[in-house]
Design a protein that fits this description.
It is built from 15 helices and 16 strands. The chain is α/β, with parallel strands linked by helices. It has two domains: 241 residues, 3-Layer(aba) Sandwich (Aldehyde Dehydrogenase, Chain A, domain 1), CATH 3.40.605.10; 142 residues, Aldehyde Dehydrogenase, Chain A, domain 2. It has a seven-stranded parallel sheet with strand order 10-9-11-8-7-12-13, sandwiched between helices. Strands 5-4-3-6 form a four-stranded parallel sheet, with helices on both faces. Strands 1-2-16 form a three-stranded antiparallel sheet, with no helix packed on it. Helix 7 runs parallel beside helix 8. The termini are far apart.
């Protein structure tokens, strides 16, 4: 049975530098990952179910810790969107625990054969999924990331070193304590999931330069955080800068569907990266006025170009900066475009390559949009708020990757593995 993880064991010594602290935690994580590799699929799944149960049992403690973070956030002037990301409720915490349990039910990717071939000389070659190793995750105000990251990394055979933001420091520690207790009670190595015990900003720099100790960095947070990680890291990074998601209402869109999708894509939850930030209305779409009126009537502030403003006097004038802004609030940029090509040009100029949507009944236009948009997720006749690993059937996710290498779109279990070649022979010698 593993020894329960305690915060005091990981507290930095008075003379310990950020680099030494990160190195110590990383070595402990790598040792735990070696132990994790010896666990069977049922053992890993059982450890996650135990961790999920511990989250449920510690509800009062976690919510009390979250209340401290919320009070501090309000005193420090956090926006309503950031407070919403930070806030936990019994329902949200139950959802976090359920997500951990759901990951336990997903197929273990480790050991899966990606492809297999036999050479003329009789050699059998397989590409087999293996864990990446130790993953460092640097994130801001969402305490659910603590549980999501722990579950996904453990299920895929990885250890994880977490560095949460100061906004959620009490919530993160309470969640981590519950997770560690659940893992230990199930016999899993507690150090497979660690939380950096200090908010010293220098620790971030130490994680970014810990090549050879940390195998991959995943940043979850605002544009400035991700930009810093991408600029300073000496470790491979899996990231997206922001979620400037577009919805294009094509001339052949169903008006009722267009209104419903626009409202959901923007207002269901304004603070998530899949929320629509720019609405593009085709000049030939006959119900543009209905779409903007529905949004305005729901207290969404619209900022539009001249043609959009002509649709409703309540629309404010957009600036050049608005087209490149991730509002994460009930604010939306609106432009009127002259057809599909103009919509594609606008998206190409301003999209963050996260998620972009077309609403249309014209299958040819839909296919052209899918082919023409270079984003991690392209949708037809659906809300961009579906840009989420759970909605893709992947379970909890680490984030949405918008790059072109390793993983793209929702990063869940498979995105947290790499592969190795396994070659089996019968004594073949190379001539």
């Amino acid at each position: 049975m593993a020894t329960p993880h305690t915060s005091s064991a990981n507290e930095p010594a008075a003379s310990e530098s950020p680099e030494a602290l990160v190195a110590r935690l990383a070595r402990a994580g790598r040792a735990a990952q070696c132990q994790l590799a010896k666990l069977s699929d049922p053992q890993k799944a059982g450890a996650l179910l135990s961790a999920a149960q511990a989250l449920r049992e510690d509800e009062a403690t976690i919510l009390a810790a979250n209340a401290r973070d919320l009070a501090a956030g309000e005193a420090n002037g956090l926006t309503s969107a950031l407070l919403d990301r930070l806030r936990l409720s019994p329902e949200r915490l139950a959802g976090i625990a359920d997500a951990v349990a759901q990951v336990a039910s997903l197929p273990d990717p480790v050991g899966q054969v990606i492809d297999e071939a036999s050479r003329p000389n009789g050699l059998n070659l397989r590409r087999v999924r293996v864990p990446i190793g130790l993953i460092g995750i640097i994130y801001e105000s969402r305490p659910n990331v603590t549980a999501d990251a722990a579950a996904l990394c453990l299920r895929s055979g990885n250890a994880v070193l977490l560095r949460g933001g100061s906004e959620a420091v009490h919530s993160n520690h309470a969640i981590l304590a519950a997770l560690a207790r659940g893992l230990a009670e199930a016999g899993a190595p507690a150090d497979a999931v660690q939380l950096v015990p200090t908010q010293d900003r220098a620790v971030v720099g130490a994680m970014l330069t810990a090549a050879g100790l940390i195998d991959m960095i995943v940043p979850r947070g605002g544009k400035s955080l991700v930009a810093r990680v991408q600029a300073d890291a000496r470790v491979p990074v899996l990231a997206h800068l922001d979620g400037i998601c577009h919805t294009y209402i094509h001339s052949a869109a169903n008006p009722e569907m267009a209104v419903a999708i626009a409202l959901n894509a923007k207002l269901r939850r304004t603070g998530i990266c899949g929320a629509m930030e720019t609405l593009l209305l085709d000049t030939a779409f006959p119900a543009s006025g209905q779409v903007v009126a529905a949004l305005l009537d729901q207290a969404c502030e619209l900022r539009g170009d001249a043609r959009a403003r002509a649709l409703d006097p309540r629309i404010l004038a957009a600036t050049d900066e608005d087209w490149d802004t991730e509002y994460l609030d009930a604010i939306l940029s609106v432009a009127v475009v002259d057809g599909l090509d103009a919509a594609l040009a606008h998206i190409d100029a301003h999209s963050s390559r996260h998620t972009d949507v077309i609403v249309t009944e014209d299958a040819t236009a839909a296919d052209a949009f899918v082919a023409g948009v270079d984003s991690a997720i392209v949708m037809v006749n659906a809300s961009s708020q579906f840009a989420d690993g759970g909605e893709f059937g992947l379970g909890a996710e680490i984030g949405i990757a918008t790059g072109r290498l390793h993983a793209r779109g929702p990063v869940a279990l498979e995105g947290l593995t790499t592969y190795k070649w396994v070659v089996r022979g019968t004594g073949q010698l190379r001539p």
